[in-house]
Design brief:
Shape of chain A: globular
Largest sheet of chain A: 4 strands, parallel
Largest sheet of chain B: 5 strands, antiparallel
Number of helices of chain B: 6
Radius of gyration of chain A: 21 Å
Number of strands of chain B: 8
Oligomer: heterodimer
Distance between the termini of chain A: 52 Å
Number of helices of chain A: 13
Distance between the termini of chain B: 60 Å
Radius of gyration of chain B: 20 Å
Structural class of chain B: alpha+beta
Helix content of chain B: 25-40%
Strand content of chain A: 25-35%
Structural class of chain A: alpha+beta
Helix content of chain A: 25-40%
Largest interface: A-B, 50 and 42 residues
Chain lengths: ~425, ~200
Amino acid sequence: MPRVLLLLPTTTYRTQAFMEAACRLGVEVTVGSEEASTMTGLNPAGLVSLDFANPQRAAEQVAEFAVRHPIAAVVPVDDQVAEVGAAICERLGLPSNSVESAAATRNKYRMRELLARAGVPQPEYRLFLLAAEPAELARQVTYPCVVKPLSLAASQGVMRADNEVEFVAAVARLAAILKSYNGHFLAEHFIPGPEVAVEGLLTSGRLRVLAIFDKPDPLDGPFFEETIYVTPSRLPDAIQQQIAAITADACCALGLVHGPVHAELRLPTFGDLKSQISNLRSRSPHVIEVNPRSIGGLCSRVLRFGTGLSLEELIIRHAIDDNFAPPDREVRAAGVMMIPIPRAGEFQGVRGLESAKAVPGIEDVTISAHRGQRLVPLPEGSLYLGFIFARGRSPEIVEAALRAAHAALEFQIDS
Amino acid sequence: MTETELQSIKIMADPKSATTCLFMVDRPVYPDSSFYFGSNESAEGSPLAERMFAIPGVTNVLIAHDRVTVGKASVEEWLPIARQVGQAIRAHIASGQPAVSEEMKQRIPSADEIRNRVQQVLDTRINPAVAAHGGHVGLIDVQGNSVFIQLGGGCQGCGQADVTLKQGIEVEIRAAVPEVGEILDTTDHAAGRNPYYTPSKK
């Protein structure tokens, strides 16, 4: 039976989904984490601690491990371990993205540079030093803009600024989040318009789009907290094809060739109709980012393929067998709501859970924050309160169910 | 059973990997019970398992209620083997024989014996290990050969609880008590107040 190395950071949301998928597939599993498991002594073939901060060192550790327990495939479960996964695959001679391409996706400036070089539509951007005089930088930016760290994930530290005053405040706030004035940040032109997420799978550089999610809540700032994802997309087929084509171009530009891909794109709506028609390029979907991983949090639960395969089963099977052709996503619409953190404080619990679960179309409501946990909203925070999952005949029904379930929940948070 | 009745038995094959395929039957083949056969020898006397192992390439079989999970060593296509498995399941249902021999059923220890042996594993192997993260694992119940456990302390709500469960607790229990069927985690992880690892978006 093939042995799969799952690279699971200790704080990832993805542990349960990948462990269950591996069990269902009946593959041998070794879990690689940055911390030693309490069970390592009892199951040395099933658990290994790796230096995630040093990809080449981790690759050597796995090469030594693989002498005793041969590894058939490596699955990095999220973007924290994409580069480590690539280094391990390179060392073991397994198909994967190159270390350079995986590393490029972890640095938003490097990503922008590679996309720009390939002419992939994206927001205009500037790289600035955090330590530079912010008032001076503020005069060099076109507004509205988005201030972004180079490396954080899931909108942490991402802020919109509509003028010089807001820009200066955003930079100071970002430095506080990063706890440092060392290093750089990006200032990107804000693109108004709806945003979509693309879930895909790359095989030898060919992109197979698994799902396109609409994000019906506008992401206009000042912070960019993601909430509802619904698939299939309600956008016209021609635009969906354009989204898929630009995502494929972006993967190619970044050198991504193998495994799961999660991309975020904006559909610009600026200008009146006449100016949009005269400038077709500005109407193309613009790439916000592309990552060599699957959808984050617990969101993958809404995706089912063929006779009920989960996204994680599909990813593991693809990692074992290059020739595996993923079945299509189920016909029904599906959606997830990442429950936003309404305010800072200590989480005490939630009322209305049963009412929320009873909303027609709702499959589950999972509260992932634990009682007593300190909740910190964006842009400083990096947690979800929980997730609401729905399925239904149409995207409209699914979106309505998610909103109704969320409205039924009352969060108890002590200030 | 006539040929028409035989063909009316619906069996859905769901290949899980190159080496494992699940066959879902439209009626129970081993009602409300499960049994795992890891070798041809272990299948001796159990009619459905014998039929499965008679198919070239089959290496293991799990029979559970209305599902038969078949494992094979080769990476060849499932289709030819799946057809033979389907025929064998239909022939078994037509025969009216039991899926698992009485002798094999008798080999399953009593719930009390399983309880004692699992508790010993928890006391001597598991709990001393998870104590390092302020965790503990309790045995809640044993029903038939199904074991119900509960995680507490640092394990309750921990982002790595599934790894601890599947790569540690289950492995240890199955090694010490191979007759155990399902191992079910009854923990209310949402109620955990002090999980050792808390998931975050970073």
